[in-house]
Amino acid sequence: MIFQTINWLDSTKELVSLQLPDVSAGAANSPGGASEDTRLHIFSVSLTPATGTGISLEVQYARSTQMWFEGTNKTQIVEVTVNNVGSEWVLANNSVKVTVSAPGYTTVSPGIINRLRPGDQAIVQLGVVNSGGTVAGATGNATVQISGAGVNSAPYTFNATYGIIPYESSFDSIYAHEAPTWYKNAKYGAFIHWGVYSVPGWGNVGKNESYAEWYWWDMNLGPDTSEETYQYNLATYGPNHNYDDFIQNFTASVFNPKDWVDLFSDAGMNYFVQVSKHHDGYAIFDLPSNVSNRTSVAQFPHRNLLQELFDAAAQYQPQLHRGTYFSLPEWFNPAYAKYGFGQWPGGNATNPYTNQTLPYTGFVPVDDYVSDVILPEMQTLANMGTEIMWCDIGGPNLTAEFAADWFNTAGGDGRQVVLDNRCGLPGDFDTPEYARYDAVQVRKWESNLGMDPFSYGYNRATPASAYLSPQGIVTSLMDIVSKNGNFLLDVGPTANGTIIATEQNNLRAAGRWISSHAEAIFNTTYWFITPEEGDAVRFTQNSNAFYITTLYPPNATLTLDSPVPYVNGDQVTVVGGNMSGTVVPTQLLSNGSLQMTISDAIQKGDQYSWVFKIPFGGMTSSNSTANADASTTATGSGPSQSNGAGSNGGTGSNGSSGIPTGSNGPNQSNQPRSGASVPQANLGGMYIGVLALLVSYYTY
């Protein structure tokens, strides 16, 4: 496997070696250990010497994107990565601005850097427009310039694509799309699994719990499984009851979509993703009769449930972005048989007790499942106004054809939409399931899990006490956001449309905390140096402030060893809770650590998590008063993948230093092995806080 990683280096210290991970025990997911001859091969290391003096800012990378600022006439976003390679801080009164220019290409919204320590990095987004008759899609050299009081910086030239251009149905064109700013800033959304599987609503409990929405598949696995769905279904419904018989009991009888969207708003969420069709093939929206009649409109309860939810959101909570989950394959659709694989075989199901072949309710014969079912279903969702296409499973698809039209049509309406990584293409964000990343991911990601311990669909076997608590919601959210993630938290309504009281109560309790602490969550980005300190502390920031969140009640003295961006004279305050706005006595210790005195009133003035704010405004540029370390802060949201839309890296005069690690192939004996270090002779010197490694981890 190949990975790229970017890490901070302390530019106040001399770098003499790099210690590599010990992989002598073998691949983590394979048996055999050392006998498998596992190797770690480094292809490249990029370091930039910290040789500047004063405030010396250097552009590491610049690229034009196909994103635009919301609320504008498609003001194009250019993203610029800036390093402070000097010896002094950037502070607010240095008035640092980042602009880009070229003939026919003008900055209308400069990037702003309010605080940047020596050796740190900021990623800024600036807005540009075409002028002088420049045609959208034209390419050419553009120059980034950084200005500010006392700032030294050389111009940086890169190849730019001028303006927003239409997407084409090719891999490269769709790959150039990326998650829009609204999605990056939204942070928190609702996942809703609601369908025919909600009728049995069962997935076992404890260590044997499985996804309740997989009920049909699990009951076909037979009696010798930990899920025990086969036995439960037999005992509860008998041998002659088939899965499709549940359709008539999917009543939605108390479904009130206004109640749902009001709940999501009260919970502090900014978007929702409703399951429109799961692997059982039952869609809760209307479809053309030549595509499928396996829908909530053609079948019971004869309602377009998804449209009702979308309409309620538009009317009562218009700030909520509307999204749809969509399963590409269907377990037992006869038309999917020629594409079937693994747990998605296609072909008619059989009754596991009688071995009788079962009809597929609402099935419409088609020539090709991919072109005649998947594509028109996705197009229908797009026409309904979905802003998030949250596919699942992948497999055979026409996603490139769909996405090009969807992106262009939405863009023509002034909307920016987003595609997940399960549609058969890399998409705009990654989706760890009942999991989260332990470190910052530069590419946008979204952790999804249920409030249920291990089910998305409603599971009647789960006790109320097992659902995710308000504290669990809050601490999960703050951890995920600190690492550049979004949090998609699932609820599983019952068949009649009820979201159970425990889920509602816990969501609203967490929502009250989120509302009180919103500035530390939404419209923030991660801190390049580190997202956390130990198990208890997480960091976020925006262009005007830095936020310290403790996931547990803080002690009377909170000491941080991370080089948080505090300078003498900053007034640290409490965010949220009963003591919001209270000044927290703060001092720098002789070793550079930051010490905060937390009063008893502050400790008792909040719950779930405690947030403290370091403001960036109002400081003078007397760098003798600054801490030895500081933060990076920029306008806009966190960075997207470096090989996304627009240009390649530029050719500015301040290039990085490439450090070779051997030109022979990975089988050569002179390659770094487990636990090896890159030789000191190649590294001696002071470097800024950037280390990029492209490594391959493999086993022979």
UniProtKB/TrEMBL annotation:
One of its GO terms (molecular function) is alpha-L-fucosidase activity. Keywords: Glycosidase, Hydrolase, Signal. It is an enzyme of class 3 (hydrolase). Residues 624-677 are annotated as: Disordered. One of its GO terms (biological process) is fucose metabolic process. Its EC number is 3.2.1.51. Residues 646-655 have a biased composition (Gly residues). InterPro entries: FUC_metazoa-typ, GH, Glyco_hydro_29, Glyco_hydro_29_N. Residues 668-677 have a biased composition (Polar residues). It holds the Pfam family Alpha_L_fucos. Residues 624-645, 656-667 have a biased composition (Low complexity). It comes from the Eukaryota. Residues 166-519 form the Glycoside hydrolase family 29 N-terminal domain. SMART domains: Alpha_L_fucos. PANTHER family: ALPHA-L-FUCOSIDASE, ALPHA-L-FUCOSIDASE-RELATED. Alpha-L-fucosidase is responsible for hydrolyzing the alpha-1,6-linked fucose joined to the reducing-end N-acetylglucosamine of the carbohydrate moieties of glycoproteins. Belongs to the glycosyl hydrolase 29 family. This is alpha-L-fucosidase. It comes from Viridothelium virens.
